[in-house]
Amino acid sequence: MQASPRDNFPIGGDSNGRGWYDPSRYSVVQRFFLARLERMVALNRSPEGRTEPWQTTLISRAIYSTYRDCVAIGLADEARTVLRGEERAPHSSASA
């Protein structure tokens, strides 16, 4: 099964209804890494996400690695928005 850039990839919001970006502006790979970054940041902010020091270290490293992936594919502004926890992405143009 081939995925197209306009497929409804399950990201762009969470259970709180947060959908701060238009998924049609991003490729499948870009949406994947943004969703991964959002998930890692949510885990880091959740108290039950890290009970041991090694878990905190792993989550921090995963956030950094995923942030670097986002930068590499042209999503630096969006990645910073996720890290800051803002509701809306900047009005930058992403390549699809």
Question: Short description, anyone?
Answer:
By secondary structure, the chain is mainly α. It is built from 3 helices and no strands. It has helices spanning 28-45, 53-72, 76-84.
Task: Give the SSE layout.
Blueprint: H1 28-45, H2 53-72, H3 76-84
Question: Can you put this structure into words, describing what you see?
Answer:
- With 96 residues, the protein is mostly helical.
- It has three helices and no strands.
- Helix 1 packs antiparallel against helix 2 and helix 1 (28-45) runs parallel beside helix 3.
- The longest helix has 20 residues, at 53-72.
- Residues 1-18 and 87-96 have low confidence and may be disordered.
Largest sheet: none
The best one-word shape is: elongated
Order of helices and strands: HHH
Mean pLDDT: 75
Figure out the total of helices. 3
Low-confidence stretches: 1-18, 87-96
Q: Characterize the quaternary organization of these chains.
A: single chain
- Write down the Rg: 14 Å
Helix residue percentage: 40-55%
Measure the end-to-end span: 20 Å
Task: Quote the beta fraction.
Answer: under 5%
Q: How many beta-strand runs?
A: 0
Structural class: mainly alpha
